[in-house]
Design brief:
The chain is mostly beta strands and 458 residues long. It has one domain (51-456). It contains 2 helices and 35 strands. Strands 2-7-6-15-11-17-18 form a 7-stranded mixed beta sheet. β6 (91-97) and β7 (104-110) form a beta hairpin. It is globular, with a radius of gyration of 29 Å. The protein starts with a helix and ends with a strand. InterPro entries: DUF5719. Pfam families: DUF5719. This is Large extracellular alpha-helical protein.
Amino acid sequence: MSRATASARIVIGAVVSAAAVAAVVGAGAAPWPAVGTAAPSTDVLPAPAEVLLACDGPLLALARSAEDAAGVSAAADAAVVSGDAAGEPLEQGELTLSGVADATAPLFRRSPEGRESVPAAAASSVTARDMDLGGFAASECRAPQMESWIVGGDVATGTTGILLVANPTDANAVVSLDVFGVEGVTTPAGADAIAIPAGAQVPIPLAGIAGGEEAPAVRVTAVGSPVRVTLQSSIVRTLEPGGIDLQPAVAPAATQVVPGVNVTPEASEGENSSGLIRLLSTSDATATVTVLPEGGGVPVRAPEQVALTADQPKSADLGGLPAGRYTVLVDADQPVVAAAWQATGFGPGSDYAWYAAAPPVERATLFAAPDGPNPRVSVYNPGDEAATVAVSGDDGEQSLEVGAHAFASVALPGSGLYTLDPGGSAVHALLGFEGGSVLAALPITQDASTPQPLTVYP
């Protein structure tokens, strides 16, 4: 082989090697063809479950007997409205009331019909006119949960609070109570394992677990079986009853909506002006509180930023608002729980209500309106477009036009079963009662009887 031939082969080999390297580098830089496939999945519709609704039962009183200062007794019976979507009566049972003689609380069931769910609803109301209890309160009969948050009540002089923890299932439950206050979160002695027997409701005095907390929040965590939690509260001012309330549990969320807070003419004037919203986050957070008037989306005052310290409840003032109805919005950078407090005044015969944050309602939902003065549904629309919401009952249908980021309300003809249809939007709704010195409110909770599709990955 000549020297020229050998040199040519060396040059050609170098060129080929360089080309190979370039091809490898180029292949690494260029997009590779997709060879994978999406994980197989299927949408499965679960079988509908039985509807299980537990009611609060009679209004309870503490320490009415001189022989038993810690005793609990029934003070006033509740009136209950219940039924299913067809107007048929529900199967009714009873919850025993632990430590309360000759008293029970209603329990309602509605089984599905084959693969079809049957919406059901129930609610109760109660009026008291005693020396130590006076006012009006209303409450939705609700399904039990594994975790419940109560944001309300206090243990100041003249106030009374009772946690009503009910287990409407057939299995025993054990609950733990965590109290959030000025020092953060604590679990009081003996509150880490409270037995709630199957088919029973246990009243737990708030003063026994919240100590000297004037603005507490309580988390109830259940094991073994879910429970339903309500806070019954009352106040006496200088020997005159100043109102009663039944407050439902709420769930944490970064956005909370409290629609339909009613400021009466008496409560908007001078020293009777009152109102607040209590907030809690388990993390340091910043919450913005906005107050919207009925019929419009323009705040009545500049939004207020509230700095929250982890595990410490904090209140923002809502006093000084003109008479009317309002929606209170809370937007936070961490999940919070929230409830607003409003009173009709501070004199004899006054009343108050805790307005719990209302969850979103995205589909037609059956709800019960118990007996009470001037029932009214308030609806807030968080969407960017106006929503048409229908409220229908035995007396016909009412259509409610709710603007974007605004709220509106409609009066109901009386007690009974109603359906709220958000018309394809997601709204927040509350049923309120008002009249003279009466205030009461209960959020409208989305119908849980209809199962939603689940995506299953084999």
